[in-house]
Amino acid sequence: MKKVKIFADSACDLDLDYLKELDVEMIPLTASFEDEVFEDRVTITTKEFYQRLRESKILPKTSQIPPSKFLERFKKYIEEGYQILYVAFSSRLSGTYQSGCIAKDMLETDDIIVIDSKAASVGLGLIVREAALMAKEGKTIEEIANRVIYMRDRMEHIFAVGNLEMLKRGGRISTAQAAIGTLLNVKPILQFDDGYIIPYDKVRGEKGIIKKIIDTMKERGYELENQVIGMNYSNNLDFCLKLRDEIQKEFNIKEFVISEIGAAIGSHVGEGTTSVFFMRK
Predict the structure, then answer these.
(1) How far apart are CA 187 and CA 221, in angstroms?
(2) Segment 58-81, tens digit of pLDDT
């Protein structure tokens, strides 16, 4: 039986050291500030990214991974006798999934499976993590793919956008909405639906965020005490840890995966965003 190599892109928002520990091959998306182009988590750290974000007068732009990048990496592992499973950033938010499919077709092999995760950030990261652990256990590529699809279809993404200015600059809300929201300390709560980002609710302040997320986990979560819960943050670790402590106290969670949002996702959500990822019923 051939060994299985798990591929991910940097939109999974897992730290490079953790991906190396999992033996995951990661290919970065890029973020550009004017004429400077950076590979997410490779040539720009999260700290450097948020520093540039604060200083920049224009929003960074992100780019999908071109098929050539996948072709180069896929070919290497196929020639070494591996099967490849690539768990891709949601196709609703990026063309990176299509790039992976194009590279697979160019290699004309049945030893590559590309799956649209319909997920992002640590929601995607939890799926990649599970796939990597199964590969380490020697599971077949079919077994791993089935588990990836099972998790994909049940992964909840609940996130609070902390910076209304970023939404305004990105054209997602008006200047007036941003000003009123900031004045009233209103925090939009968003969620994923079939890989798309959609509005969920609005709350006031950090206490409102914590209550809404915990209430949502109570309503939608499945055996939360037996799950690994994912969380992310963008330059607001203190609040993320505060939220984690409240979740742990409420549900007796045994394990969390927590990571800072990188440039690929951070270019769109800005600073102050916090998310929670878990499996629903």
Answers:
(1) 22
(2) 889 999 999 999 999 999 999 999
